[in-house]
Amino acid sequence: MFARGLALALCKRLALLGEHVILRFFDSRLYEGVKVGAQGHAEVPYVLQFRAEHGRNYARVIRQINAELSARAARAAAAAARCWSTC
After folding, report:
1. What are phi and psi of 32, to 5 degrees?
2. Strand bridging mode 34-36 / 21-23
């Protein structure tokens, strides 16, 4: 519970500073993200009641993160190329 409380506090602080914060759990897989706002009302029950699967699969989670980051980078590069060609 301490780690979850700390995560909520850090997320709320970042949100108050104007950062875009998404909180994600992982164990044997990477779960969908929950947007954290400055108010933090909707995230608290989700974070405190989250039930993870048993077991850890760090290699799978790292592959999922890499795939997501690569897809975002590809989309950003494509958008920049479209902007560059039209500008």
Report:
1. -60, 150
2. antiparallel
21 phi and psi, to 5 degrees? -115, 130
Q: Map tokens 């909707």 to a residue.
A: 42
Q: Helix count (H) and strand count (E) of the chain?
A: 3, 2
Report the distance separating Cα 84 and Cα 36, nearest Å: 33
> How many other C-beta atoms lie within 10 A of the C-beta of residue 43?
20
Predicted confidence at residue 41, as pLDDT, reads 59
**Token pair for residue 63?**
């592959």
Q: What is the pLDDT of residues 29-81, one digit of tens each?
A: 778 877 777 765 557 777 777 777 777 788 888 898 899 899 989 999 888 88
Kindly state the tokens that stand for 43.
Answer: 């995230």
What pTM value is reported for the model?
A: 0.57
CA distance 21 to 7: 11
